[in-house]
Amino acid sequence: IWNKIRRQITPKIGQITNDEEAINRISTQLVQLVQPNPPLPPPVYHALLSSLAKAILMQAETEVTAEKKAAYPLARVTFNLLGTLSFFPEIFYAKLVQRIGAWPIPCIIPETDIDKRPWGTGPKGRGRGGENERARVMGLRTSQSGEGLEGQSEFMVRCSGVMRVYWEIV
């Protein structure tokens, strides 16, 4: 169920234009996708909200970075969804912090994790290793070349698109 609906979300996010009718239509279609009648089981619903937030943020990372004017319609759709879908504000904010780190808070990621251990040294199965894990918590992603983490300029460009949408929402 989740996969079927998730595949319908991304194209709708990509269709957003700076037209009030399109913004309202796409907002309504997205709400209908994640809140069908009868309602979805809570785990599926929450997973779809996470997928919806990720699709919005990835669109901001790519399209808004290329064309700043794309932030407004994307922010309007997101604003509509934040006011309509239960639990979406919390999930959207969590996904926002996951994608770009502490920029919207703002705060500095400490040298140790919450358990006071250096990053990547927690219980078995946790972490990807030291500074690499800390960098990921800070919002850094794998570089486009696939080798190592993205550079500071690549990270800042990606963050600027997301933060532009964030501030349009605010």
Q: How are the secondary structure elements laid out?
A:
Layout lengths: L1 H13 L5 H15 L7 H25 L4 H12 L5 H13 L29 H8 L14 H18 L1
The major β-sheet equals:
none
Instruction: Give the number of DSSP strands.
Output: 0
Q: What is the strand content?
A: under 5%
* Percent range of helical residues: 55-70%
User: Could you say which structural class the secondary elements and strand pairing correspond to?
Assistant: mainly alpha
Q: Mean pLDDT score, rounded?
A: 88
Series of H and E elements: HHHHHHH
User: In angstroms, what is the radius of gyration?
Assistant: 17 Å
3D shape: globular
Which consecutive residue ranges, at least 5 long each, have pLDDT under 50?
Answer: none
Q: How large is the count of helical segments?
A: 7
Span between termini:
32 Å
Task: Give a description of the structure.
The protein is mostly helical and 170 residues long. It has seven helices and no strands. The chain has helices at residues 2-14, 20-34, 42-66, 71-82, 88-100, 130-137, 152-169. Helix 1 (2-14) packs antiparallel against helix 2 (20-34) and helix 3 packs across helix 7 (152-169). It is globular, with a radius of gyration of 17 Å. The mean pLDDT is 88.
